[in-house]
Design goal:
148 residues, mainly alpha, Histone, subunit A, 2 domains, elongated
């Protein structure tokens, strides 16, 4: 857990980026306002996490899931955020599924490449063995020359 209350605050860079994205160009926000927004956001996240944790505990789980967060938002009377959250969750799941599929494809491609390389090295070994069988040993070749 956090040692100091400041440890619970969200990173200033993240807060600043969110503020800039939410406001039109040319609007400046004072340092004090950014700090107040940061603290308010941190308190909101902690409260939402606490509420979601209560839902997980009622279900006798130690892991929070998306359903817990959505239920917490409803309990906190932030129903208007439920649909955007569901949409964001769906986009996230699709992105993760896509990443998983790409990762799986890369793994399969890597296995195919390794199999192809193994096949090639086996063919080369077999070719070398075949060549060795065809060449007479040096001693026999010398004996044949001497007899002629």
């Amino acid at each position: 857990m956090a040692e100091r209350p400041e440890d619970l605050n969200l990173p200033n860079a993240v807060i600043t980026r969110i503020i800039k994205e939410a406001l039109p160009d040319g609007v400046n926000v004072s340092k004090e306002a950014r700090r107040a927004i940061s603290q308010a956001a941190s308190v909101f996240v902690l409260y939402a996490t606490s509420c979601a944790n209560n839902f997980a505990m009622k279900a006798k789980r130690k892991t929070l899931n998306a359903g817990d967060v959505l239920a917490a938002m409803e309990e906190m009377e932030f129903e208007r955020f439920l649909e955007p959250l569901r949409e964001a969750l769906e986009v996230y799941k699709k992105g993760q599924k896509g990443k998983k599929e790409v990762s799986e494809q890369k793994r399969k491609d890597k296995e195919k490449k390794a199999d192809a390389e193994n096949d090639k090295s086996r063919e080369e070994e077999e070719e070398e063995e075949h060549m060795e069988e065809e060449e007479p040993p040096e001693e026999e070749a010398e004996e044949e020359e001497v007899e002629n």
